[in-house]
Design a protein that fits this description.
The protein is an all-alpha fold and 411 residues long. The protein has a single domain (3-397), classed as MFS general substrate transporter like domains (Growth Hormone, Chain: A, Up-down Bundle). The chain is built from 16 helices and no strands. It has helices spanning 3-24, 29-45, 49-77, 79-96, 104-117, 123-131, 138-166, 169-190, 214-218, 221-250, 255-280, 285-293, 296-303, 310-339, 344-373, 377-392. The radius of gyration is 20 Å and the shape is globular. The protein starts with a helix and ends in a 19-residue tail after the last helix.
């Protein structure tokens, strides 16, 4: 039996459960709902786009505050218990969103609390569990696991769109809470870390203890290349995806068409998860990352046009979607690849803060730019050099440390 097959035989259910957790968690459907709910919330409460963008970005603020603590607890008590408890609390908190009034400050605070409630449902948790089951095909396994959030991009527009058309924005939050509750079934049944289970013996006996500590990682230039690079890329991706529907409607595209195109982005996100995940197990990982993370340059250049053709919109959507998929898959891979699993949760938690810092601030700046100039063009022009700089930084990472290429225990 090949090593790759045995790894997936033993850890495949863990990957599936982690993917469902990602779809139903705070970084899945709830994050992907931001662009869909932007206009309905603005219309319902007479908020401008800067206000709505700021309130919705509080989702990122809660994750930024909690990620380092979640990382420490994941390393200490394990991913399974944190994932299950946080998913339950997230479902309850999402239902609570239906009781809000028209105060934009109150809405922003509620969104912040929502992200705190779901802090244990991010890829930080699911990646830890999956990484303990895989060595030879860790890139592909993490790609399959993070594809859950990509699937959410495919189903969220139609799912929430039907709820919005039939009822209102409150129904959208009820629907998302229901998904979180249903996700608990496979997570409870299948998700757990590898503590010596499985007959293949393909995971190194010391895999959980291999790597470097947090202090050593922070002193490494690689830590900052990865962190700053992913922050810039994630910021550009978020600034475009959150405002994409508004950008397209401003360009004369019908709102229903603009919403349906976000499903196409879901297909691109899934591809952006799987293809880089497959390639990093076979090709120089920094090169793979640099290529996929630079693709928003294409999208930002296209979206500056005042006369967007359907084909141009499709190309822009695919480009931004490929990077949106790749960034979430590549971050846990690079953390485990260059720093190991010894302090995976702590290091990934700090990197996750940088990713979400970019994702949280950039849409606000883009919304402010629109309210100030009446156009998204200035923001898109600034995005191009920022995302290029972040992507190219990955080329400087070099080869991984020796612990990642240590011999694997075989039967």
């Amino acid at each position: 039996m090949s090593g790759s097959y045995a790894e997936f035989r033993d850890g495949g259910k863990v990957v599936l459960a982690g993917a469902i957790g990602g779809l139903a968690g705070i970084t899945g459907m709830l994050t992907n709902s931001r662009g869909i709910l932007l206009n309905p919330l603005a219309d319902a409460f007479a908020w401008n786009r800067t206000e709505v963008s700021t309130a919705l970005s509080a989702l990122m603020a809660g994750t930024i505050v909690t990620a380092p603590f979640v990382g420490r607890f994941v390393d200490k008590i394990g991913a399974r218990r944190i994932g299950i408890v946080s998913m339950i609390i997230l479902a309850i908190a999402t239902l609570g969103m239906t009781q809000l009034s028209g105060s934009v400050k109150g809405f922003a605070f509620a969104i912040f609390l929502l992200s705190v409630a779901g802090c244990g449902t991010t890829p930080l948790v699911w990646s830890r569990g999956v990484a303990t089951w895989f060595v030879r095909r860790r890139g592909l396994a993490l790609a399959l696991m993070t594809s859950g959030t990509g699937v959410s991009w495919v189903i969220t527009p139609a799912y929430l769109g039907a709820l919005l058309n039939t009822w209102d924005w409150r129904a959208a939050y009820v629907g998302m809470a229901a998904v979180s509750l249903l996700a608990l079934i496979p997570i409870t049944l299948f998700f757990h870390e590898n503590r010596g289970q499985g007959a293949s013996g393909l995971v190194r006996a010391d895999i959980v203890d291999a790597g470097i500590d947090v202090a050593t990682a922070i002193r490494s230039y690689r830590f900052w290349l990865i962190g700053i690079g992913i922050m810039l890329v994630a910021g550009v991706v978020a600034s475009v995806t959150v405002h994409q529907i508004a950008m397209l409607t401003e360009a004369g595209v019908a709102r229903d068409t603009a919403v349906s195109l976000t499903s196409l982005m879901g297909v691109a996100i899934i591809t952006g998860r799987l293809l880089p995940g497959y390639l990093v197990d076979r090709v120089h990982p920094p090169l793979v990352a640099s290529v996929f993370l630079a693709m928003p340059v294409i999208a930002c250049a296209i979206l500056q046009s005042d006369a967007l053709s359907f084909s141009a919109i499709v190309i822009a959507t695919l480009a931004i979607g490929l990077t949106a998929g790749a960034q979430v898959d590549l971050l846990p891979y690079f953390v485990s690849h260059y720093f190991g699993l010894k302090a995976f949760g702590k290091i990934y938690g700090l990197q996750f803060v940088m990713l979400y810092l970019g994702s949280g601030l950039a849409p606000i700046i883009m919304g402010w730019g629109y309210d100030t100039t009446g156009s998204y063009h200035a923001g898109l022009r600034i995005d191009i050099p920022l995302v290029a700089l972040g992507a190219l930084g990955f080329l400087l990472l070099g080869k991984p440390p020796a612990f990642e290429t240590a011999p694997i225990k075989t039967p």
